[in-house]
Amino acid sequence: MDNLGPEITEPVKKAISRIFGFPAPVIPIIENIDFALDSGRNQYHSTSVLQQLEQSAPSFAIKVIAITKVDLFIPILTHVYGEAQLGGKACVVSTCRLRDHITAPNPDIVFIQRIVKEAVHELGHTFSLRHCREHACIMHYCRTGLDVDRKSDQLCRYCRILLDDELKKLNRDHPEKSR
Ligand SMILES: [Zn+2]
Ligand SMILES: [Zn+2]
Hints:
Helix content: 25-40%
Oligomer: single chain
Distance between the termini: 22 Å
Bound molecules: zinc ion
Order of helices and strands: HEEHEEEEHHH
Number of helices: 5
Radius of gyration: 16 Å
């Protein structure tokens, strides 16, 4: 989480331990992501960030999430709010576009709620969760900030069961990393 204040990192940490049951220490892993810059688009390629994150993750980490202010893209899309390795170790979220189109009276609160939801969403992918058709589910795919506002900060019952299965597997395979 690059140079983000506790007003962002604290709610993200809380949500991660609430949903996944793991502590989420904030550690600087990548100092500089210029390697991912596409100078033609003036945006950062999220897949390169994921590769670097995976390589740089501390060995004790079960998963690693980066939160960045820069604008991320994958080649087929104009931008992404984030990207994750499905069933892998790394994911990344960009706060860059999550401030767009906020009409609520407390834009800062909405902004942080969106970051929290997208962070949990991307981490969910690293635990093998796919996009969910349930509109209120945090694993629902959102194209706009308003879509993000409409979903809840919870997994639906179906995704919760899938996640619990995944967590059980993890505890069986890596008992030393269990909560
Ligand atoms: Zn997704
Ligand atoms: Zn779901």
